[in-house]
Design a protein that fits this description.
- Helix 4 packs across helix 5 (215-224).
- It is globular, with a radius of gyration of 22 Å.
- It is built from 14 helices and 14 strands.
- The two termini are 27 Å apart.
- By secondary structure, it is α/β, with parallel strands linked by helices.
- It has two domains: 5-266, Rossmann fold; 272-401, Aspartate Aminotransferase, domain 1 (Alpha-Beta Complex).
- The strands form three sheets. Strands 3-10-9-8-4-5-7-6 form an eight-stranded mixed beta sheet. A four-stranded antiparallel beta sheet has the order 11-12-14-13, covered by helices on one side.
């Protein structure tokens, strides 16, 4: 048997894998469960790796891509977990957007630095380079990825992973992905899909806007499907990917059901409320007079519209009859201390809530309330960025015509069908 073909079996997984170049690390747990927090039965990838005494990293020069949400179930950072054991030779750190400490603003380039905890070099993958260079990877045998994603295509941590996988496979460096829960669970998916010409760093994979996968599942799927990674096919096939799964996580689990503590993944995603709000309002506030609470204590959940009172906005939202949502008027303050009154979004019924529906309804209201419509007067740079986030040029053609009656419903139905087809094809790459 080729040394790169590994077969491992476990009752945890919904199927057994025997995949070229892919190693799935899993054991059936017994005594290790005593190390879990009392409030959680979930073993994260980093926990499982530690329980195995870091066996797959021993005698290797290791790099680590992570951020502050990269912690074990006891809250200890993966950086220190790997650095403080004699079993791992951690030689370099890598940081995504927002930096390795998570304190950099969105879309702001981050410089290389030295980590004050370990004195290791920190290479920024959101600065001069987004893809690791040969020099960065030159001293490594493997690069470990421990990033907490939020389940949304345009959140750039999965984009960072794609670029790392491509570079590592090209340089012959093993990629090890430590799995983490999708905080929206593994059952919620929502369109639109992304047009191939709109693939970018804010939409790096041909997947639904809300994708329903864990980060390790994305890695497995992208490794196995030709064309997802933007490298030569023979390089993709030869590249070595090792997945360290979670133990105890199920697809129907949202974050609260895991019993784990949520740690901010970026400055504007401090809470679980903002995680659910991100796909719900992020696209809808990209153009026009909608604001979605950034700078207040309710990012992505507090809506305001310049020229409309909260009462008017609440009535308009209620008239949309969107399933699973209700609305409350709340008053808070922004970062400058100025009072802000807006409409807070309440997810009343998770089972029928459609994560992206409100965002397109917000665009519908924007086109109705603003004259001229911002979609008909946008600059080309604004159009390009908008479309890269949304992913659908057909939707842009619909909303940019100022005389048209904007109606997202036919698009939502079409996207639902496309997402369902994607999920059926993708089912064989799900680990849980």
């Amino acid at each position: 048997m080729n040394s790169e073909i590994t077969r491992l079996r476990a009752k945890n997984f919904r199927r057994n894998f025997s995949l070229l170049q892919v190693c799935l690390i899993c054991l059936i747990f017994g005594p290790f469960t005593t190390f879990c927090l009392a409030s959680s039965n979930i073993r994260l990838g980093i926990d499982y790796l530690q329980d195995r005494e870091f066996d797959i990293l021993q005698n290797k020069r290791v790099g680590l891509l992570t951020h502050p949400a990269g912690v074990n179930s006891l809250g200890k950072s993966t950086v220190l977990t790997l650095h403080n054991t004699s079993k791992v030779n951690l030689v370099a750190l890598f940081g995504p957007e927002h930096g390795i400490y998570g304190d950099e603003k969105a879309s702001v380039p981050v410089d290389d630095k030295i980590d004050h905890r370990t004195n290791l070099p920190v290479y920024s993958l959101y600065g001069k380079f987004r893809k690791p260079t040969s020099k960065m990877l030159g001293g490594l045998d493997c690069l470990v990825i421990d990033l907490q994603d939020v389940g949304v295509r345009c959140y750039t941590y999965i984009s960072c992973m794609r670029y790392v996988m491509e570079a590592c496979f090209e340089e012959g460096v093993e990629v090890v992905v430590l799995d983490r829960p999708n905080p929206l669970g593994g059952l919620k998916t929502a369109g639109p899909m992304i047009d191939s010409e709109l693939i970018s760093y804010v939409g790096a994979f041909p997947m639904p806007f809300v994708h329903g996968m864990t980060i390790a599942e994305i890695a497995l799927w992208s490794k196995q499907i030709p064309g997802v990674l933007k490298i030569e096919d023979k390089v993709r096939r030869k590249g070595k990917l090792t997945l360290v799964p979670m133990i105890g996580w199920k697809r129907n689990m949202t974050w609260p059901s895991t019993g784990l503590v949520w740690r901010p993944t970026s400055p504007n995603i401090p809470t679980l409320d903002s995680v659910a709000g991100y796909p719900m309002t992020g696209l809808g506030a990209q153009m026009g007079k909608f604001k979605h609470g950034i700078g207040t204590k309710y990012p992505f959940r507090l809506l305001t519209f310049d020229g409309k009172s909260p009462e008017e906005l609440k009535r308009a939202l209620e008239n949309l009859n969107l399933k699973g949502l209700s609305y409350k008027i709340k008053q808070t303050s922004n970062a400058s201390g100025k009072s802000v009154r807006g409409v807070y979004l309440v997810i009343q019924d998770w089972s029928v809530w459609r994560p992206t529906e409100l965002a397109f309804a917000m665009m519908q209201l924007t086109a109705r309330w603003q004259d001229p419509s911002p979609f008909s007067t946008a600059k080309q740079s604004e159009i390009n960025l908008f479309n890269k986030h949304v992913g659908s040029s057909a939707w842009w053609k619909h909303i940019k015509t100022k005389d048209s009656e904007v109606d997202p419903r036919p698009f939502l139905l079409r996207w639902d069908a496309e997402v369902a087809a994607f999920s059926r094809k993708n089912k064989s790459y799900l680990l849980y």
